[in-house]
């Protein structure tokens, strides 16, 4: 059976079901092998995606049924993740390298049990 978000359901954590997209995302961010392309921020309250071209070609197809960065970002948005925008000196600062940072209040390093609080937005 296919569920929205890809995969065949969610992994059960603490008796509740967590969508497959979120468990895959957690695995990706936690995996030291993927750190050059996706990793936790130093404080663990957000994660970074570096080099979107390589990330979408090398990492996405291993975990998802596509290699489309826009689809990945759309999924993040559906689950309430927000792009972190750094504003310094009164203007938007463009990172030196291809670095996009995403954050969700319940996606925190070492707090996997919080994943069950992340809900997909319902579209009317």
Query: Numbering strands along the chain, what is their spatial order in the largest sheet?
Result: 3-4-8-5
Number of helices: 3
Low-confidence stretches: 1-15
Class by alpha and beta content: alpha+beta
What is the fold named in CATH at topology level? Arc Repressor Mutant, subunit A
Number of strands: 8
Q: What is the succession of H and E elements?
A: EEHEEHHEEEE
* Overall CATH architecture: Orthogonal Bundle
Mean pLDDT: 84
What is the CATH class name? Answer: Mainly Alpha
Notes on the structure:
The chain is of the alpha+beta class. It has a single domain (17-115), classed as Winged helix-like DNA-binding domain superfamily/Winged helix DNA-binding domain (Arc Repressor Mutant, subunit A). The protein is built from 3 helices and 8 strands. It has helices at residues 20-30, 52-63, 69-78; strands spanning 11-13, 16-18, 38-40, 46-50, 82-83, 87-88, 91-92, 99-103. A 4-stranded antiparallel β-sheet has the order 3-4-8-5, with helices on one face. It is globular, with a radius of gyration of 15 Å. It starts with 10 loop residues before the first strand and ends in a 21-residue tail after the last strand.
